[in-house]
Amino acid sequence: MRLLSAIATVGGYTLASRALGFVRDILIAAFLGAGPVADAFFVAFKLPNFFRRLFAEGAFSAAFVPLFTRVLTEDGADAARRFSERALSVLAAVLLVFCTAMQIAMPWAMYLFAPGFADDPAKFDLAVELARIAFPYLLFISLVSQLGGVLNALDRFAAAAAAPILLNLSLILCLIGLAPMLETPGHALAWGVFAAGVVQFLWLIEACRRAGMVFRLPRPRLTPAVRRLVAKIVPGAIGAGVQQINLVIGVVLASLLPTGAVSYLYYADRVYQLPLGVIGIAVGTALLPLLSRQIREGDEAGGRESFNRALEFSLLLTLPAAAALMVMPGPIVALLFERGAFDARSTSATAAALAAFAAGLPAFVLVKVLAPGFFAREDVTTPVKIAGVSVAANIALSVLLLGPLQHVGLALATSAASWLNALLLAWLLRRRGQFAIDRRLRTRFPRIVLATLAMTAILFAGLEVLASMLAGTPLERGLAVVVLIVAGKTAYAAAAFALGAAEFSEIRGSLSRRKA
Q: Comparing 191 with 30, which gets the higher pLDDT?
């Protein structure tokens, strides 16, 4: 199946990137821990990433890929390239103005994104300085997002999926090489973010050239096609970026808590982002161009089949991942981060946030899968209404839970809001007749749940058996976690195949097509 092959390509590179990202985060934890410099850098890094995911990866990609696919299908490659050039020039001009304005307004922006830092002038000033260094990353990475959309629409997924590897390499090299020469390790990381944007942009330009898409940069002009693109971006910024809005709300409120809360949420977010990226983002990235093409060609039956298989594959991998993160968050966090400046107290606080985020992991993935059902039909306004409800729920729950549960309450609020978002998306697609669960998914979903429960039982038993090792030396803890992971994966795979939740021939076939 072409969809599974594309998911395997994107997911494989994403897995490599996230694995390298863990190396990066292990080094950050060792150098910075969960102190004021870490808090300042994470907020500085959050700013360009928030706007990137909200506008570039979210609204822009959701609007651009279906329009580019339409031009490519109806008018050919040359017309699609010209449309992309015009969009690229307008996007670059807008981003240049926006980045310049943000450099000037950064202190005021910091009051908005991290108001709690104002009580600590040194941390506030450091966050502003680091954000000014890192923020131009937004310009380059947003252009990377459009170039990646072009490649994805051409069924070339590898280069864009591999680009985040360059970000992690840049941060690792700058942290190791520049930290001794600069004022703080946070400065080295901020310069690493800036450099990563440039490198990723050059990487994607070359990939597009190899795909036959050599771009000029004409004078920015709002042609009718670009106006149509802009009209779809504006409302889509909220709908596609709801998860990011929810996470930023968490950062704003976390800045009001004692030092370390922002860092705890960051480290927990990094762990659950692994399955989210490998599964949710990979499925959404592969599904959107395929679904857009099927709908454009009038193949509604094929679109429904792709949609069901995307949901089935997502649930097959997401449910066990979420269960594992909820059952054993402490051992995972300790293995990854507990060294250097990251102590046992930081492990405990981060593990609690990770368990709360893990409860919402299936919802985070479902949103990535369900949203293309709207975007492929060039409908970016409907998710805005759903996003408004979700964001309002997140704010209300965050304020309600902040006092009794501190940073864990913020993670729980984010998870609950994502579940609301996913359920409303699914309900509305079904009501419109654009989505219906087919017989195969109805049959396999309860079997996936049973296989997940079997794995969970094995993990609970393993935690009891290996309790002494988990409380021992770092080497013993590491070995115990590896044993638990291997046992859990083996138990889940065995149960899934035995119960018929998955078919080995399908997986083998998709991997064979990927290699071909």
A: 191
